[in-house]
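Late entry, pyridoxal-5'-phosphate complex.
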Amino acid sequence: MSVAQSPLPTATETLSGRFGPYGGRYVPETLMPAVTGLEEAYRAIRTDEGFWAELDHLHRTYTGRPTPLTYAARLSNHCGGAQMYLKREDLAHTGAHKINNALGQGLLAKRMGKKRIIAETGAGQHGVATATVCALLGLECVVYMGVDDMARQRPNVFRMRLLGAEVRGVDSGSRTLKDAINEAMRDWVTHPESYYLLGSALGPHPYPTMVRDFQSVIGREARQQFLEATGRLPDLIIACVGGGSNAIGIFHSFLNDERVALCGVEAGGVGDGLGQHAARFSFENARPGVLQGTYSYVLQDDDGQIALTHSISAGLDYASVGPEHAWLHDTKRATYTTADDESALDAFYTLSHKEGIIPALETAHAVAEAMEQAAKMRPDQLILVNLSGRGDKDIFTVADALGMEI
Ligand SMILES: *Cc1c(COP(=O)(O)O)cnc(C)c1O
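Prediction complete; structure with ligand written out below:
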């Protein structure tokens, strides 16, 4: 039996939608029937072996799972400390972990008899993954995207259109991810017969649990691969945290292994002032609040207005964070740090030069933290880094930062 086929470790958990005080379902009454309908449908497939077998088959024959585990020998040498291993989600179809969730929810939508899919996207990776899955499963696809993000990520906008999706620009608010989610939810209110395919471990219950379940394939595979490669578990696991789906996906299989330290890396941006970063746990001005259907840490001003955020990576640029991370933070099961734009760029170049892997800028935040931690650790210690995605989409941003034109 392959790893991906193993039963969901969470299948016996109750579907409460709460992680300590966090999570929940804060949606307008008009959306309630759609959200509870989704919860019922997810409950039904959660223990349905046929569903998971079909998803597993598609992962093996379409997504390219299991993705490899790569020992980063030259990067480890370069840092002169712990040995680093990379879980290669960059090699999954469409270039990031996003496909794990999009395919899972796409199959669920199909089972629910849905014909039209709505999605939001920030960097465009979730939009591309969703458009891909809709093409594969024969579903209509509408993707909302902030117009500023559309300008930053033009190749992904074109990709979505090539895949047959309709991309709708959103020019309200900060014209980024938060506004795209608002618009997608508005669409869902007026078209409750559509399926809203949310892209991270965020939003009202059941999304944080469901998205985590679909992403936990990363950690299940990585755990077995790491044991096979090294004979033991890692000392430290590092992942970048935007909404938190790739991080919770790799953390989840290790939550009960108390000796495995878990570290999430947020976008430190260009400074610690409000509006200069997207670090929900690390600086002042982050405190619990409700944003877009869930109770979690939210970057806000003294009046509770949602703060603007900044990151060189569009995928980490969001004012809130998945509620399960808020709970892991408060209970200290995981620690959360930041990498700023500059150290992310530096890690981007270093990984490219030392390992022949061009990472996504989001991912480069995790690599930056891994390089820093590795240097402080012993050579017999082991770090597992979630390489959430590849950097093709970011070459224009990086060229800009270098003052070059492609
Ligand atoms: C979207 C994205 C992220 C951030 O989203 P999470 O839900 O926090 O995982 C990180 N890395 C890559 C490559 C992405 O595309």
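The mean pLDDT is 94. Will revisit in the morning.
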